[in-house]
Amino acid sequence: MRKYDLVVIGGGAGGLTAAAGAASMGAKVALIEKEKQPGGDCLHYGCVPSKALIEAAKKIHTARFAADEFGFVLQGELDFPAAIRRVKAAIAHIQKHDDADRFRNMGVDVFQGFGRFKDEHHVEIGHGDVVYGKRIVISTGSRPVIPPIEGLAETGFLTNETVFDLQRLPKRLIVVGAGPIGLELAQSFARFGSQVTVIEYAAGLLGREDQDIVPYIRAALEKELTFLFNAKVHKIEKLVGGEKRVTVLRGDESILLDADEILIATGRRPNTDQLGLENTGVQLDKGYVVVKETLQTTVPHIYAIGDVLRAFPFTHAAGMEGKIVVGNAVFGLRRKVNYEHVPWVTYTDPEIFHLGLTEQEAREKIGVEIRVYKVTLDDVDRFVADREMNGMVKVITDEKGLILGAHTVGKGAGDWMQEIVYAKQSGHKIGNISNVVHPYPTHGAALQRAADQYWRKKLFEGVVPKILKMYIRWFR
Ligand SMILES: Cc1cc2nc3c(=O)[nH]c(=O)nc-3n(C[C@H](O)[C@H](O)[C@H](O)COP(=O)(O)OP(=O)(O)OC[C@H]3O[C@@H](n4cnc5c(N)ncnc54)[C@H](O)[C@@H]3O)c2cc1C
Ligand SMILES: NC(=O)c1ccc[n+]([C@@H]2O[C@H](COP(=O)([O-])OP(=O)(O)OC[C@H]3O[C@@H](n4cnc5c(N)ncnc54)[C@H](O)[C@@H]3O)[C@@H](O)[C@H]2O)c1
């Protein structure tokens, strides 16, 4: 039986970071991945295919818009499989970074097979090999939650694991769930030409976002999608022609919708149920692995990262956690995970950027002593020139100007808001962003405009203006 300093179960965003990092530090590492190729959800069924599809759809949307605005005519049928080929090409390109042989060349022993704990130090791979890990990382990710809807299994449905294999554009698509997966994909399909209806349990969109931000994104999406809020799919039947008839309940109302495809995007569940964790002392909470800030589970030599944790189900968070585990599991450090400065972006059009506390959270946590700076994009020259004025930047600080949160809706916001992540993480005050020269006219100037308000408030409120006036009078 082979013995390792570190055994990593699951070769996705988190596991690959941990395995590569540990091997580069000289540790003997085994990586167990059930699929033929590592890469995980993000590469095969998540971030990469969804962003490739979003971009393809955006190009078509832009062409249609341009035709309308500039008076030319678009001709011919949409070649939807061409969009899917684009998606597959993006995956294949990035797969080279996550290739099993590339990891072998780094010194990692890569095993293909399903990893399962035999006990707290031994992991069985498939039905054969067993490896010993002095320390072990659980990074097995998550999978879609499939709600118990009558007729759903019999009628057939799509999830993020199958939607990127579609070869025909559905004329009518029903998306169940208005979270980031549902919204990003719903908007893309609408842009290809599907009629899309989104069915959501909750009364509105994106409950975790700042409530000033939500109306902008809702207004944008309602132009392209039909929403049914406070709605529940009651049952689904297959019609003679193969279409799907969906019965939706909304209050006392029963609504019938026919569709060619149904996409289920109702959340995720962690892949911890078949891991043999009952053979260990690793504790779960509703299926999620319970960890300390050091990412150690209730068995100190077993660590967990990525979507098996409840904390922050994003690729960049899994990568950050993977790096922390390298330090802790390989060098015995006690580094703690901290999500305070970790942003997320929802890649709808316009994009939604989220960092730190929302205004509502800041008021609960800090009280009234917070400051809120807002700029709408119709006040920012570059967005006016682009005719992309739907959106806003909002920054929340404490009374001294230290950044507590930042929230934006706007074209490309995921890229141009990154400046504030650096500022927040480095402990800069909002005023410092105002002092940085931004080339004119960039989109990032929107953030600077919000930051300028800090000085404006300082200069024109309180005692400062009185002192300034006295000084100027004296100087004259
Ligand atoms: C449609 C969609 C879009 C997304 N878009 C974004 C985005 O734009 N930005 C972003 O930050 N996040 C995005 N995410 C989330 C992101 O994909 C996940 O947060 C990220 O992949 C989690 O990484 P992970 O390492 O925990 O899991 P994964 O990357 O899923 O890796 C887990 C790996 O473990 C393997 N595995 C599971 N069980 C076993 C076992 N018992 N033995 C061996 N191997 C096993 C799996 O095959 C898989 O390779 C998206 C997700 C989806 C579904
Ligand atoms: N851009 C990104 O970073 C990105 C993109 C996609 C996904 N992700 C990650 O994937 C995770 C999961 O995304 P998601 O959208 O699947 O989940 P989610 O939990 O964020 O949203 C699911 C939505 O479905 C609704 N819902 C649940 N059951 C329902 C039902 N039976 N009928 C109608 N509505 C129902 C919920 O109220 C919720 O609004 C996200 O939390 C995120 O971390 C990230």
Shape: globular
Strand count: 23
Which fold name fills CATH's third level, the topology of the largest domain?
A: FAD/NAD(P)-binding domain
Number of domains: 3
- How much of the polypeptide forms β-strand, as a percent range? 15-25%
Tally the helices. Answer: 16
Family: Belongs to the class-I pyridine nucleotide-disulfide oxidoreductase family.
Keywords: Disulfide bond, FAD, Flavoprotein, NADP, Oxidoreductase, Redox-active center
Domain FAD/NAD(P)-binding: 4-322
Domain Pyridine nucleotide-disulphide oxidoreductase dimerisation: 342-450
Fold and architecture overview:
The protein is of the alpha/beta class and 476 residues long. The protein has three domains: 2-143 and 269-331, FAD/NAD(P)-binding domain (3-Layer(bba) Sandwich); 152-266, FAD/NAD(P)-binding domain; 350-460, 2-Layer Sandwich (Enolase-like, domain 1). Helix content is 35%, strand content 24%. The protein contains 16 helices and 23 strands. The strands form six sheets. Strands 1, 2, 3, 4, 5, 6 and 18 form a seven-stranded mixed beta sheet that branches. α8 links the parallel β9 (195-199) and β10. The model has no long low-confidence stretch (mean pLDDT 96). The structure holds flavin-adenine dinucleotide and nicotinamide-adenine-dinucleotide. The site of flavin-adenine dinucleotide (FAD) has 35 residues, from α1, β2, α2, α3 and α9.
